[in-house]
Amino acid sequence: MTERSKIFEEMNDRSREVFRRVVEGYLETGGPVGSRTLSRTLSEKVSAATVRNVMQDLEYLGLLEAPHVSAGRIPTETGLRLFVDGLLEVENLTEDDREKIDTTMGGSGADVGEMLDRVGQALSGVTHGASLVLAPKHEAPIRHIEFVSLAPDRALVVLVFADGHVENRVFRPPVGQTPSSLREAANFLNAIAEGRTLSELRRAVATEIGQRRQELDDLARDMIENGMAVWDNEGDTNPRLIVRGRANLLQDSAEAADLERVRSLFDDLERKRDIAQFLELAEEGEGVRIFIGSENKLFSLSGSSLVVSPYMNADRKIVGAVGVIGPTRLNYGRIVPIVDYTAQLVGRLLSDQRQ
Protein backbone atom coordinates (compact mmCIF):
# COMPACT_ATOMS: atom_id res chain seq x y z
CA MET A 1 0.00 0.00 0.00
CA THR A 2 1.41 3.41 -0.98
CA GLU A 3 1.70 6.33 1.41
CA ARG A 4 -1.17 8.09 -0.35
CA SER A 5 -3.35 5.00 -0.02
CA LYS A 6 -2.63 4.83 3.70
CA ILE A 7 -3.65 8.48 4.10
CA PHE A 8 -6.86 7.84 2.19
CA GLU A 9 -7.71 4.80 4.34
CA GLU A 10 -7.13 6.77 7.54
CA MET A 11 -9.54 9.58 6.56
CA ASN A 12 -13.06 9.40 7.98
CA ASP A 13 -16.23 10.06 6.01
CA ARG A 14 -16.36 13.75 6.98
CA SER A 15 -12.76 14.51 6.00
CA ARG A 16 -13.18 12.62 2.73
CA GLU A 17 -16.26 14.63 1.84
CA VAL A 18 -14.60 17.93 2.75
CA PHE A 19 -11.53 16.96 0.74
CA ARG A 20 -13.60 15.87 -2.27
CA ARG A 21 -15.67 19.06 -2.29
CA VAL A 22 -12.59 21.27 -2.02
CA VAL A 23 -11.00 19.52 -5.00
CA GLU A 24 -14.19 19.56 -7.06
CA GLY A 25 -14.69 23.25 -6.28
CA TYR A 26 -11.11 24.00 -7.31
CA LEU A 27 -11.42 22.03 -10.55
CA GLU A 28 -14.62 23.92 -11.39
CA THR A 29 -13.53 27.47 -10.52
CA GLY A 30 -9.74 27.40 -10.21
CA GLY A 31 -10.03 29.24 -6.90
CA PRO A 32 -9.84 28.38 -3.19
CA VAL A 33 -12.86 26.96 -1.40
CA GLY A 34 -13.78 28.40 2.00
CA SER A 35 -15.13 26.68 5.11
CA ARG A 36 -18.29 28.77 5.20
CA THR A 37 -19.19 27.75 1.64
CA LEU A 38 -18.53 24.10 2.42
CA SER A 39 -20.56 24.09 5.65
CA ARG A 40 -23.66 25.00 3.65
CA THR A 41 -23.26 22.16 1.14
CA LEU A 42 -22.03 19.19 3.16
CA SER A 43 -24.38 16.26 3.60
CA GLU A 44 -23.68 16.41 7.35
CA LYS A 45 -24.80 19.62 9.06
CA VAL A 46 -21.72 21.02 10.76
CA SER A 47 -20.46 24.50 11.60
CA ALA A 48 -17.94 26.48 9.56
CA ALA A 49 -15.54 26.17 12.52
CA THR A 50 -15.73 22.38 12.37
CA VAL A 51 -15.09 22.41 8.63
CA ARG A 52 -12.15 24.76 9.20
CA ASN A 53 -10.62 22.27 11.63
CA VAL A 54 -11.02 19.43 9.13
CA MET A 55 -9.38 21.55 6.43
CA GLN A 56 -6.47 22.30 8.76
CA ASP A 57 -6.03 18.56 9.36
CA LEU A 58 -6.02 17.95 5.60
CA GLU A 59 -3.47 20.73 5.20
CA TYR A 60 -1.30 19.06 7.84
CA LEU A 61 -1.48 15.83 5.79
CA GLY A 62 -0.19 17.74 2.75
CA LEU A 63 -3.43 17.42 0.79
CA LEU A 64 -4.59 21.05 0.92
CA GLU A 65 -2.89 24.43 1.02
CA ALA A 66 -3.87 28.07 1.40
CA PRO A 67 -2.78 30.07 -1.68
CA HIS A 68 -3.33 33.37 0.11
CA VAL A 69 -3.90 34.60 3.64
CA SER A 70 -7.62 33.88 3.17
CA ALA A 71 -9.36 30.93 4.83
CA GLY A 72 -9.94 29.20 1.51
CA ARG A 73 -7.98 26.10 0.49
CA ILE A 74 -6.94 24.46 -2.77
CA PRO A 75 -5.55 20.96 -3.29
CA THR A 76 -1.80 20.35 -3.47
CA GLU A 77 -0.32 18.16 -6.20
CA THR A 78 -0.35 15.32 -3.68
CA GLY A 79 -4.01 16.04 -2.97
CA LEU A 80 -4.89 16.07 -6.66
CA ARG A 81 -3.11 12.75 -7.17
CA LEU A 82 -5.02 11.23 -4.23
CA PHE A 83 -8.28 12.53 -5.70
CA VAL A 84 -7.51 11.19 -9.19
CA ASP A 85 -6.48 7.78 -7.86
CA GLY A 86 -9.22 7.32 -5.30
CA LEU A 87 -12.18 9.64 -5.83
CA LEU A 88 -12.29 10.64 -9.48
CA GLU A 89 -15.47 9.62 -11.24
CA VAL A 90 -14.73 9.25 -14.95
CA GLU A 91 -17.69 10.35 -17.03
CA ASN A 92 -19.04 8.58 -20.07
CA LEU A 93 -18.17 10.19 -23.37
CA THR A 94 -21.12 12.36 -24.34
CA GLU A 95 -22.74 12.02 -27.75
CA ASP A 96 -21.99 15.70 -28.37
CA ASP A 97 -18.25 15.25 -27.73
CA ARG A 98 -18.17 12.06 -29.78
CA GLU A 99 -19.91 13.75 -32.69
CA LYS A 100 -17.54 16.74 -32.62
CA ILE A 101 -14.49 14.49 -32.71
CA ASP A 102 -15.90 12.23 -35.43
CA THR A 103 -17.03 15.19 -37.57
CA THR A 104 -13.78 17.13 -37.31
CA MET A 105 -11.68 14.11 -38.20
CA GLY A 106 -13.97 12.88 -40.91
CA GLY A 107 -12.28 14.75 -43.76
CA SER A 108 -10.89 12.87 -46.71
CA GLY A 109 -7.25 12.56 -47.64
CA ALA A 110 -4.62 9.86 -47.29
CA ASP A 111 -1.92 12.07 -45.79
CA VAL A 112 -1.29 10.93 -42.20
CA GLY A 113 0.09 14.33 -41.22
CA GLU A 114 -3.08 16.13 -42.30
CA MET A 115 -5.24 13.55 -40.55
CA LEU A 116 -3.32 13.90 -37.28
CA ASP A 117 -3.46 17.69 -37.55
CA ARG A 118 -7.26 17.39 -37.69
CA VAL A 119 -7.06 15.11 -34.66
CA GLY A 120 -5.19 17.82 -32.75
CA GLN A 121 -7.65 20.50 -33.79
CA ALA A 122 -10.58 18.33 -32.72
CA LEU A 123 -9.04 17.42 -29.38
CA SER A 124 -8.18 21.00 -28.44
CA GLY A 125 -11.57 22.24 -29.58
CA VAL A 126 -13.54 19.72 -27.55
CA THR A 127 -11.44 19.93 -24.36
CA HIS A 128 -10.64 23.67 -24.53
CA GLY A 129 -7.04 22.80 -23.71
CA ALA A 130 -3.85 22.39 -25.73
CA SER A 131 -3.63 19.10 -27.59
CA LEU A 132 -0.47 17.11 -28.26
CA VAL A 133 -0.34 14.48 -31.00
CA LEU A 134 2.80 12.43 -31.54
CA ALA A 135 2.79 11.23 -35.14
CA PRO A 136 4.20 7.78 -35.96
CA LYS A 137 7.54 7.49 -37.65
CA HIS A 138 7.53 6.36 -41.25
CA GLU A 139 8.19 2.65 -40.91
CA ALA A 140 8.13 1.43 -44.52
CA PRO A 141 11.27 -0.44 -45.68
CA ILE A 142 14.10 1.75 -47.02
CA ARG A 143 15.03 1.63 -50.68
CA HIS A 144 17.92 4.11 -50.83
CA ILE A 145 19.91 6.59 -48.69
CA GLU A 146 21.97 9.50 -49.96
CA PHE A 147 24.08 12.18 -48.22
CA VAL A 148 24.40 15.62 -49.83
CA SER A 149 26.79 18.34 -48.64
CA LEU A 150 25.10 21.75 -48.31
CA ALA A 151 27.86 23.66 -46.52
CA PRO A 152 30.90 22.85 -44.35
CA ASP A 153 28.60 22.64 -41.32
CA ARG A 154 25.38 21.35 -42.96
CA ALA A 155 24.49 18.16 -44.80
CA LEU A 156 21.31 16.57 -46.08
CA VAL A 157 20.28 12.95 -45.77
CA VAL A 158 17.74 11.80 -48.36
CA LEU A 159 15.68 8.77 -47.36
CA VAL A 160 13.75 6.98 -50.11
CA PHE A 161 11.27 4.37 -48.88
CA ALA A 162 9.91 1.35 -50.73
CA ASP A 163 6.41 2.85 -50.79
CA GLY A 164 7.69 5.94 -52.67
CA HIS A 165 7.78 8.21 -49.62
CA VAL A 166 10.82 10.55 -49.58
CA GLU A 167 12.17 12.46 -46.57
CA ASN A 168 14.91 15.08 -46.56
CA ARG A 169 16.56 15.89 -43.23
CA VAL A 170 19.26 18.46 -42.54
CA PHE A 171 21.90 17.71 -39.90
CA ARG A 172 25.35 18.82 -38.75
CA PRO A 173 28.08 16.59 -40.25
CA PRO A 174 31.47 15.93 -38.60
CA VAL A 175 34.14 18.58 -39.04
CA GLY A 176 36.25 17.99 -42.14
CA GLN A 177 33.72 15.90 -44.06
CA THR A 178 34.71 15.20 -47.69
CA PRO A 179 32.87 13.98 -50.80
CA SER A 180 34.55 10.59 -50.38
CA SER A 181 33.42 10.24 -46.76
CA LEU A 182 29.86 11.07 -47.84
CA ARG A 183 29.97 8.38 -50.55
CA GLU A 184 31.51 5.81 -48.21
CA ALA A 185 28.87 6.48 -45.55
CA ALA A 186 26.04 6.19 -48.10
CA ASN A 187 27.48 2.99 -49.62
CA PHE A 188 27.84 1.42 -46.19
CA LEU A 189 24.24 2.20 -45.26
CA ASN A 190 22.73 1.14 -48.59
CA ALA A 191 24.54 -2.21 -48.35
CA ILE A 192 22.60 -3.08 -45.20
CA ALA A 193 19.49 -0.89 -45.53
CA GLU A 194 17.40 -2.56 -48.21
CA GLY A 195 14.30 -4.20 -46.79
CA ARG A 196 14.82 -2.73 -43.34
CA THR A 197 12.79 -0.01 -41.64
CA LEU A 198 14.53 2.89 -39.92
CA SER A 199 14.18 1.23 -36.52
CA GLU A 200 15.65 -2.01 -37.84
CA LEU A 201 18.42 -0.19 -39.67
CA ARG A 202 19.39 1.74 -36.54
CA ARG A 203 19.99 -1.52 -34.68
CA ALA A 204 21.85 -3.06 -37.63
CA VAL A 205 24.12 -0.02 -38.00
CA ALA A 206 25.26 -0.23 -34.38
CA THR A 207 26.16 -3.91 -34.86
CA GLU A 208 27.87 -3.43 -38.23
CA ILE A 209 29.95 -0.46 -37.10
CA GLY A 210 31.18 -2.48 -34.14
CA GLN A 211 32.18 -5.40 -36.37
CA ARG A 212 33.67 -3.38 -39.24
CA ARG A 213 35.16 -0.42 -37.36
CA GLN A 214 38.60 -0.91 -38.97
CA GLU A 215 37.16 -0.93 -42.49
CA LEU A 216 35.33 2.37 -42.17
CA ASP A 217 37.01 5.73 -42.56
CA ASP A 218 36.75 7.80 -39.34
CA LEU A 219 34.86 10.60 -41.11
CA ALA A 220 32.46 8.14 -42.73
CA ARG A 221 31.79 6.50 -39.36
CA ASP A 222 31.16 9.91 -37.76
CA MET A 223 28.89 10.83 -40.67
CA ILE A 224 26.78 7.72 -40.11
CA GLU A 225 26.56 8.22 -36.36
CA ASN A 226 25.72 11.94 -36.70
CA GLY A 227 23.12 11.16 -39.34
CA MET A 228 21.47 8.67 -36.99
CA ALA A 229 20.44 11.56 -34.75
CA VAL A 230 18.05 12.95 -37.35
CA TRP A 231 16.42 9.56 -37.76
CA ASP A 232 14.69 10.37 -34.48
CA ASN A 233 13.32 13.46 -36.26
CA GLU A 234 15.50 16.04 -34.52
CA GLY A 235 15.23 19.12 -36.69
CA ASP A 236 12.78 17.44 -39.04
CA THR A 237 10.84 19.89 -41.18
CA ASN A 238 7.69 17.88 -40.41
CA PRO A 239 7.90 17.61 -36.61
CA ARG A 240 6.38 14.51 -35.09
CA LEU A 241 4.89 16.47 -32.20
CA ILE A 242 1.79 18.39 -33.34
CA VAL A 243 0.59 21.04 -30.88
CA ARG A 244 -2.78 22.73 -31.27
CA GLY A 245 -4.89 25.02 -29.09
CA ARG A 246 -2.16 27.01 -27.32
CA ALA A 247 -4.50 30.01 -27.12
CA ASN A 248 -6.84 28.00 -24.89
CA LEU A 249 -4.18 28.03 -22.18
CA LEU A 250 -4.30 31.82 -21.99
CA GLN A 251 -7.97 31.87 -21.04
CA ASP A 252 -8.69 32.40 -17.35
CA SER A 253 -4.99 33.17 -16.76
CA ALA A 254 -5.33 36.69 -15.45
CA GLU A 255 -2.98 36.26 -12.50
CA ALA A 256 0.73 36.88 -13.08
CA ALA A 257 1.66 33.43 -11.75
CA ASP A 258 -0.72 31.77 -14.22
CA LEU A 259 0.63 33.79 -17.13
CA GLU A 260 4.20 32.92 -16.17
CA ARG A 261 3.24 29.24 -16.03
CA VAL A 262 1.69 29.45 -19.50
CA ARG A 263 4.75 31.27 -20.89
CA SER A 264 6.99 28.54 -19.49
CA LEU A 265 4.79 25.89 -21.05
CA PHE A 266 4.85 27.69 -24.41
CA ASP A 267 8.64 27.70 -24.29
CA ASP A 268 8.66 23.95 -23.68
CA LEU A 269 6.23 23.33 -26.51
CA GLU A 270 8.15 25.56 -28.93
CA ARG A 271 11.39 23.69 -28.28
CA LYS A 272 9.60 20.35 -28.61
CA ARG A 273 12.55 18.62 -26.99
CA ASP A 274 12.56 15.05 -25.79
CA ILE A 275 9.46 14.14 -27.76
CA ALA A 276 10.48 10.51 -27.51
CA GLN A 277 9.80 10.83 -23.77
CA PHE A 278 6.23 11.84 -24.58
CA LEU A 279 5.68 8.42 -26.10
CA GLU A 280 7.49 6.76 -23.19
CA LEU A 281 5.05 8.41 -20.79
CA ALA A 282 2.15 6.89 -22.67
CA GLU A 283 3.79 3.46 -23.01
CA GLU A 284 4.49 3.03 -19.30
CA GLY A 285 0.93 1.90 -18.60
CA GLU A 286 -2.12 0.69 -20.45
CA GLY A 287 -4.77 3.17 -21.52
CA VAL A 288 -5.00 6.77 -20.37
CA ARG A 289 -2.44 8.12 -17.91
CA ILE A 290 -2.62 11.32 -15.89
CA PHE A 291 0.47 13.31 -14.88
CA ILE A 292 -0.02 16.16 -12.43
CA GLY A 293 2.41 19.07 -12.06
CA SER A 294 5.93 17.92 -11.22
CA GLU A 295 5.02 14.28 -12.03
CA ASN A 296 5.14 15.35 -15.68
CA LYS A 297 8.78 15.00 -16.73
CA LEU A 298 8.39 16.99 -19.95
CA PHE A 299 6.54 20.06 -18.66
CA SER A 300 7.27 19.99 -14.92
CA LEU A 301 8.60 23.55 -14.79
CA SER A 302 5.26 24.96 -15.89
CA GLY A 303 3.32 22.98 -13.27
CA SER A 304 0.91 21.69 -15.90
CA SER A 305 -1.10 18.48 -16.02
CA LEU A 306 -1.02 16.01 -18.91
CA VAL A 307 -3.66 13.44 -19.84
CA VAL A 308 -2.15 11.09 -22.42
CA SER A 309 -2.92 7.79 -24.16
CA PRO A 310 -0.98 5.75 -26.74
CA TYR A 311 -2.47 4.60 -30.02
CA MET A 312 -1.64 1.48 -32.01
CA ASN A 313 -1.32 0.54 -35.66
CA ALA A 314 -2.91 -2.43 -37.40
CA ASP A 315 -0.25 -4.74 -35.92
CA ARG A 316 -1.24 -3.68 -32.37
CA LYS A 317 2.08 -1.90 -31.96
CA ILE A 318 2.20 1.42 -30.10
CA VAL A 319 3.35 3.99 -32.67
CA GLY A 320 2.25 7.35 -31.23
CA ALA A 321 0.25 9.12 -28.55
CA VAL A 322 -2.41 11.79 -28.09
CA GLY A 323 -2.86 14.00 -25.08
CA VAL A 324 -4.26 17.16 -23.57
CA ILE A 325 -2.17 19.54 -21.50
CA GLY A 326 -3.37 22.38 -19.32
CA PRO A 327 -3.49 23.72 -15.77
CA THR A 328 -3.76 21.27 -12.87
CA ARG A 329 -7.45 22.12 -12.58
CA LEU A 330 -8.32 20.21 -15.74
CA ASN A 331 -11.70 18.51 -15.76
CA TYR A 332 -10.08 15.07 -15.55
CA GLY A 333 -13.37 13.16 -15.36
CA ARG A 334 -14.46 14.55 -18.73
CA ILE A 335 -11.08 14.67 -20.49
CA VAL A 336 -10.01 11.08 -19.75
CA PRO A 337 -12.76 9.45 -21.90
CA ILE A 338 -12.20 12.03 -24.66
CA VAL A 339 -8.47 11.25 -24.87
CA ASP A 340 -9.17 7.52 -24.67
CA TYR A 341 -11.74 7.66 -27.50
CA THR A 342 -9.49 9.84 -29.67
CA ALA A 343 -6.53 7.47 -29.28
CA GLN A 344 -8.67 4.50 -30.27
CA LEU A 345 -10.08 6.41 -33.23
CA VAL A 346 -6.60 7.36 -34.48
CA GLY A 347 -5.56 3.72 -34.28
CA ARG A 348 -8.56 2.68 -36.37
CA LEU A 349 -7.94 5.42 -38.94
CA LEU A 350 -4.29 4.39 -39.32
CA SER A 351 -5.30 0.74 -39.70
CA ASP A 352 -7.91 1.63 -42.32
CA GLN A 353 -5.31 3.55 -44.35
CA ARG A 354 -3.13 0.46 -44.59
CA GLN A 355 -5.94 -1.61 -46.10
From TrEMBL:
This is Heat-inducible transcription repressor HrcA. Keywords: Repressor, Stress response, Transcription, Transcription regulation. It comes from the Bacteria. Negative regulator of class I heat shock genes (grpE-dnaK-dnaJ and groELS operons). Prevents heat-shock induction of these operons. NCBIfam families: hrcA. The gene is hrcA. One of its GO terms (biological process) is negative regulation of DNA-templated transcription. It holds the Pfam family HrcA. The lineage of its organism: Bacteria, Pseudomonadati, Pseudomonadota, Alphaproteobacteria, Rhodobacterales. Belongs to the HrcA family. HAMAP family: HrcA. Residues 114-336 form the Heat-inducible transcription repressor HrcA C-terminal domain. InterPro entries: GAF-like_dom_sf, HrcA, HrcA_C, WH-like_DNA-bd_sf, WH_DNA-bd_sf, WHTH_transcript_rep_HrcA_IDD. GO terms for molecular function: DNA binding. Coiled coil: none annotated. It comes from Pseudoruegeria aquimaris.
